[in-house]
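User: My instructor asked us to take a sequence, write out its structure as tokens, and then describe one feature of it. I'm not sure where to start. Here is the sequence I was given:
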Amino acid sequence: MPHIQFDIGQQMTDAQKIYLSEQVRKIFSTIMDTGTDHISISIQEFGAYNLSIGRVKKPENGIALVNADIRKGRTIEQRRTLTLSFIELLNRSLNIPKKHIYVTLTEHKGEDFHLFEKYLVSWQEGEDPMTR
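Assistant: Let's start with the prediction itself. The structure tokens for your sequence are:
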């Protein structure tokens, strides 16, 4: 059950949040080869100077910090494609410069992710953890 957290250095409309969430679920399920019902997303908005990346000199152009807790087992190619897809999405949908976006992935055993009815198992290619 990935948890993907977006810290955004600008205000977003509800429509932008809905679009971002829909696109993130689509991107994640396609690249990571899994279903969508277990994907959780949080979006937090901050003022321009509440977020910082050392190389960003003009934060008023937008900053985004992305943290994704994911299950172990994906290849570096999958993880890199996911990261670049998130960066592209944020750039395209919120006009945040690509160099102003930082993504961190943290991998966990499947059993570290819990829903009311069950915990998840380790990832396997082509699976939907809600049916396993």
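For the description part of your assignment, you could build on this observation: The chain has one domain: 3-112. Try explaining in your own words what that tells you about the chain.
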